[in-house]
Every structure is written in C-alpha cells, then in structure tokens.
Amino acid sequence: MRTSEATRAAGAAIGEFGSIFMLHPQTFAGSVAAGYTNPLAGYVAGRGGVLGDATGATVAAIFAIFEPGMTAALWDEGVAVRGAAGAAAVYSEQLAEFARTYLGDAEGLDRIAELGEKVIAATPGAGLPMFVGWRAMPLAGPGNTDAPARAAQVMFVLRELRGDVHLNLLSASGVSPVEAHMLGHDEHYTRMFGWSEPFADGADKEDRYAEVEEATNRRMTEILHAALNAEEIDELARLSTSALAALKAALPA
C-alpha cells in the first residue's frame, strides 16, 4: 500500500471508530449517569474539556464545524456539572470502558497503541489545540490487561490530530462549515451539527473542498512519516481497520 493510501485508510478507520463511540447509546447513557441531563452537553464538555476553563465562544471556534451558538450553550451547560477538567476525565474513562466492552477481540491493540504513541510524541502541537489537549490526558495502563482502553484512547488522540489539521485547512480555504457539510454529506448531516436552513450548497467551491481533503491527507502523511516508516504506516492502517471491523462485529445489532 502506498504511504498516502495507508494514511487515508488509517484516518478513515480511526475517524469512524471515534464517531461510533461518540454517537453510541452507551456513551450518551454514561453521560446522563455522570450527571449530564443533556448527553450532548456531556459530549461538548467532555470532548472539549481538555481546553480548560475556556469560554463557550472559544470552544465553538475550535469545534468550528458546529453551529457556534449551539456549541457555546452546550458547553456552558456541560461545564456547570463537573467543570472542564472533570468532564474530560469522565469522557476519557467512558471511552476506555466502551473499548473494554466492545474492542477486546481486536488484534494488535498493543501495537496500535505503540505506533500511535510514536506519532503523538513526534508531532509538533502548534495550531492543534484539541490534539494537544487530548495528548496531555493520561492513558490506560499498557499491556494485555487494559490494551483495548489504551488503544482506543490513542486512536482518539490521533482522531483529534487529523481533525485539527483538517479544520485549519478548511478555514484557510474559505469553504464554510455548512458548505463543507453539504459538499461532503447532505442536509440531514448539516442539521445534525446545529445549522439552520437555508443551506449554502457550496457548489462553486467543490474543487476547493476536494483540495482540502487532499491537503489534509498530504499533511497527515508527512506527520505519520516523521514518526513511522512505510511498513509501520501500513501496519497502523491494517490494524486500525481491523479494530474497526472487530468493534462493529461486537456491537449489539
């Protein structure tokens, strides 16, 4: 597999893994059990809690692809429960428990963590706030006893890394969040992020959006290649794809 193709495959698998966790009923139920009456407030405070005691407007600017008023309101609601650091700790443990429940049958979890941690340690943090915040969170213990949790947490940090890279490039491109949602997905997806109609379809920016996607993959290829050789990048792609498949197989129908 060419390095750029392997990078794209790893990014897709890791991205989908994180999305499944964040949208899963177990995660929402865990947020409610932790005191977040609105599980979306638990999500925003939990994921964004690594940013510290920021304002809702600041968090909305960093989340970027969500409607900012919605994000700010959910942040304020969420941090009122446990604070920013407390919310992040709860969310990280929810991720670990989710992986312990559904990822235990995946192969190479220790290796996913090992390769991912190499990338995380070698990547400069400038302009990557969510990545830097999640990089500072403690990981579950290494070894077979908690391999699913550690691998999942490492993949989550890598997901935030790609997300920050992508959002930087998207912002510089002049493609708005709504246009990006419409070009990459559809109206339903755009509404899910809190935006209201009418939606700009971005039809005149299709080429720009495609270049953002390509530029994201180019930059992520550079980042992975700075820490891993081509064979290791292939291995990360293969194992993360396999982990996603194992997760999907383990989830209740």
Integer-rounded radius of gyration: 18 Å
Biggest β-sheet strands, sense, barrel: none
> Residue ranges: pLDDT <50 for 5 or more in a row?
none
Strand content: under 5%
Mean pLDDT level: 97
Number of contiguous helices: 12
Shape: globular
Count of beta strands: 0
Structural class: mainly alpha
Order of helices and strands: HHHHHHHHHHHH
End-to-end separation = 32 Å
Tally of structural domains: 1
Estimated helix fraction: over 70%
What does the model show?
The protein is mainly α and 253 residues long. It has one domain. 74% of the residues lie in helices and 0% in strands. It contains twelve helices and no strands. It is globular. The two termini are 32 Å apart. The model has no long low-confidence stretch (mean pLDDT 97).
What is the topological layout?
Layout: H1 3-23, H2 25-33, H3 39-48, H4 56-63, H5 68-102, H6 109-122, H7 129-135, H8 147-173, H9 177-184, H10 187-192, H11 206-227, H12 230-250
Helix pairs in contact: 1-8, 1-11, 1-12, 2-3, 2-5, 3-5, 4-5, 5-8, 6-8, 6-11, 6-12, 7-8, 8-11
